[in-house]
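I would like you to help me understand the sequence and structure tokens below and explain how sequence relates to structure.
___
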Amino acid sequence: MSSSVKLFAGIGSDALAQKIAKHYGQDLGKSTSRKFSDGELYYSFDESIRGCDVFLIQSTNGPSDNIIELLLMIDAAKRASAKTINLVVPYYGYARQDRKDKPRVSIAAKLMANLVQAAGATRLMTCDLHADQIQGFFDIPVDHLIAGMIFVPYINNLNLDNLIFAAPDVGSTKRVREFAKFFKADMVVCDKHRKRANEVASMQVIGDVTDKNVILVDDIIDTAGTLTKAANLLKEKGAKSVRAFCTHPILSGSAYENVDNSSLEELVVTDSIPLKGSSDKIHVASMAPLFADAIKRIHGHESISKLFEQ
């Protein structure tokens, strides 16, 4: 007899969780999340989950309360005798700290993996990790979804001619190359040099974008400094238009101002992280259908890779 599926939302991803549940075809489970007067978090399930396949939906973007709440959700599910505890983490926070790039620093991406596993998670589903090798930090199954499955139809509907893809930095070349390969288009690279984190000192374009409709692709947009500098430079180099597709809209600091004042025609993001502000240039493509389909496949023991073929 197949176990039942129950979906629960953390506060940080409640809006996306509601959409996922709607596409899945059932309501979110009942739960209580609140804070004590000193800020300490409390989480409880308000219905039985004994023997169920539980899916906990929560991105681990800032503030750190989102991470702590997810850990409490996992622990509560384990103690309530859930059959499986499946994490749906649309945005996996701290993924940018995935190695020791200088002495005496933390590998935070590995620490996050240790925490959720120690709490009792049995599976993780996420999308567009900052580095694919982070999957190796886990000793539980990891389903790594790709936002390109959402972005490709959007790009097709634009009906752009002379299409070319651009990497806003060298680290994005692999991701951008996949888009270029799918659309049988060329790609260029914006090579940048940083003075310090979140501050670009200089940038140059490797490749020709004259009279091209350029699409920049990246996994994260934080302050939007790199992306908007790349967009402005591409326009200066003769691009006909410049658009950007970024999976996770952190959009901190002066990001909205940077986007509004840039040469970008539009910035397309997902709802992996709730937007803090608004801009006429920013459009949101929902991850809900993608995650709902993946949850059905996991519960039905079907192949997740079939999603990529579609």
Notes: The first helix runs from residue 14 to 24. The chain has two domains: 5-145+288-309, 148-285. The first strand starts at residue 5 and ends at 9.
